[in-house]
Amino acid sequence: MQLQRQSWGSKIGVILAVAGSAIGLGNFLRFPVQAVKNGGGAFIIPYLISFLLLGIPLMWIEWTLGRFGGGFGHGTAPGMFHNIANKNRFIKYFGVIGIFGPIAIFTYYTYIESWLLGYSIFSITGKLAACQDQTSMVAFLQGYQGLEKNGFFSSLVPAYIFFILTFGINLITVAGGIQKGIERVCKYGLPVLFVLGIVLMIRVLTLSPMYVEHPDWTPIAGLGFLWNPDFSSLLDAKVWLAAAGQIFFTLSVGIGVILTYASYLTKNDDVILSGLTAAATNEWVEIVLGGSIAVTSAFLFFGPAGIKDVAGSGAFNLGFVAMPLALNHIPYGSVFGFFWFFLLFIAGVTSSISLAQPAIAFLEDEFNLDRKKAVKIFAAVTFVLCNMTVFLLGKGFLDEFDFWGGTFALVLFGTIEAILFSWVFGIDKAWDEMHAGSDITLPRFYRFIIKYITPTFLVVILVSWFLREAKDVILMKNVPDEMVPFIIFARFILFALFVAIAYLVHIAWKQKEKKT
Ligand code: PFF
To answer: Residue 2 C-alpha to ligand 1 middle, in angstroms?
Structure first.
């Protein structure tokens, strides 16, 4: 007998949970770095266009498919695809990406999240205030990560303790279930996050220039650096790829987590307005808070040329080096530093729990396991994977998982979903399904966008990636020789994970066939 599926407690609860998944490290760390790297104002136009043509449509597609699949007792992509594609025998295997991708991201995301917990403590206890220049702040970070033994840290033990705490918080939350675990954490976490974010933004925007010799390094000039539009970027394929990739990552679309969250809706729950609200909340946080806090403070400290170096010199330098350095220069800097890192930690937790849920839902729905058992299996597998990230950090392991799980899989899976939705399920049925129980009716041109523009845009992105970069990436052209064995190892693990999930899908359906 099928166990009773869970459901959300309230409409605001599910919106906050989806917004919580979307709002994460991507908003505060990845977005500003991508924007600065891609020329500041040049980034923003492709970004907004990608939001309208890819992000929003995929959000609706996933809410709709998720609710639809939940009606059949399926919380993950294999079962959903199986049902919309007339039970075609092969289509469900495309859905494997929707379980694989979230696990791949979870593997490294949780570890980075744990640094934020550590850094919250280092801020409030004044440890970060002791690092007065870039060299020592970088050394602090590398010591913490175990990349270098130095005066700050002699071992990985502190990082490991924070990792175990973070991992535990995630598992306890998902073990609590949809309403009592995920919904509750997001309901309390997001308001705290908003308040901390707004306080920090106001603090940063009202700072005066830090250096007498650079009176023009002001907050407004910092904002201008990011926001003054530069239309020449519209012709640059690289900027488009980066912008579309950021939209996927920040909205948590194209990977399966929203499918799973939406599967706990009931048949007549609204999806259009709720999906839009969650997406709009994410964009507000990304653009208003994510686009002002880190960039402005780093600009005040490093100036226009320096900030480019910082953003270009490593994914974490803006958040873990530039930001605490800048905060060291203001009164009560350690309190504001705590706000910054703790805000990021909350943002991280509400995202990583969404990454855990698809695998757990898959075990519950397709193997009839109870939640405790499903969580235990998930914990055992991801604990091993996370440890690889912890111990192989300097060897490119994290970046490899990020690329295949956090970039490639998103675009690929998004393309598959968009095609299945409009062309296999069929736009007529899809449009009706979307509008069932809806609080609003969409203008008809969105039907055209969802049917033609979104899939075409996605295919163009995939094809241009294949033409421009696939060969170099696959052949590891830019990987230093000593890292090659580790990258191959990471790929082997990813491949094994994928095959294992595909095999589980195979077994689950075999068992179902036997029963009928
Ligand atoms: N959206 C999250 C962020 O911006 O940090 C990251 C993320 C969470 C991506 C969940 C994908 C996902 F499924």
So the answer is: 30
